[in-house]
Hints:
Layout lengths: L1 H16 L8 H24 L5 H10 L7 H22 L22 H25 L4 H20 L5 H15 L3 H4 L6 H32 L11
Amino acid sequence: MVIIAKSAGVSLAVLSARDDPAATGSLLTNGLSAGLGVMVGILVTGNASGAHMNPCVSVAMAIWGRLRFSALPAYILGQFIGAAAGSALVLFLFYDTIAEVGPEVMTSYPGLAKGEVQLSFDQGVATFILLLVVCSVEDQGHTPPALLVGLSVATITITMGANAGASMNPAVDFMPRVIAAVWRMSFSPFHKGGKFWLVPFLVPYLGAVIGVSVYSLFIQRMRQESLITKKPKTVKFINN
Length: 240
């Protein structure tokens, strides 16, 4: 998932730096790449681990009771290690051209949104929407789950990505930043944009918790009440 999404981002950054016409529609391509990357990840790991690629989703699922809290540390550790490995591989794949744009292109930075409140809302709302989708797919059994979640990620990224990247995944934003810092042998990837790196690292967890809470308290409860109020049909027998 990281490789697919970040490779597209690096490619487009390089093309844009060269004023290549192929960079036109970069937001659309980036969004689709992110969504398709998630879809591939779900297809590969769905039956093995429940396709937990996002620590926010794992935390939310634990709160919702769909993941044991004792398993949460292992899931989160694996997600961060996987994001680091994928980011390192992307830098290797684009070794010859990454110098033109810098390894920071794998991370998110402020775009249209500038203020801290707007940036925080951007990351929080994006993750909130993502969790509503994930919960509905899990709870209501929508199929095919990989495609539906992938398209939802693509939609969120395309519509909100221009603000500040709409990363929705702390591991996929933080670990590429760490790899970029190692590549440059400096903390400049963390300094660019001020303290912005803290926003995609922390705020998505809040958005995820609110998302799963809203779904559980309102949507799931309404579904349960609807099922209860539906009376089964009865068959009347006529005694002769």
